[in-house]
Amino acid sequence: MIKIDVDMSKCQHYGQCVFEAPNIFKLNDDDKLEFVATADDSERANVEAAIDVCPMQAIFMVE
Ligand code: SF4
């Protein structure tokens, strides 16, 4: 199990993370980021990719 957190004070809702981990991140109807806070280990690589592409370095993962 992994835990995901996003610093919403940094997030600019660009959505790059959505492309890398679509099961975790999505932009809602107001183009605001929503995410699930816990996920199966199988999502680890996708979340790591999202962390790498986030231009604001706003995404954090806790083992
Ligand atoms: S890539 Fe980063 S800044 Fe963009 S929506 Fe995702 S968390 Fe927010």
How would you sum up this structure, described in words?
This protein has 63 residues and is an alpha+beta fold. The chain has a single domain (2-62), classed as Alpha-Beta Plaits, CATH 3.30.70.20. 24% of the residues lie in helices and 27% in strands. It has helices spanning 16-20, 44-53; strands at residues 2-6, 25-27, 33-35, 38-39, 59-62. Strands 4-1-5 form a 3-stranded antiparallel beta sheet, with helices on one face. A two-stranded antiparallel ribbon has the order 2-3. A hairpin with a 5-residue loop joins strand 2 and strand 3. The chain is globular and about 30 Å long. It starts with a strand and ends with a strand. The mean pLDDT is 97. The structure holds iron/sulfur cluster.
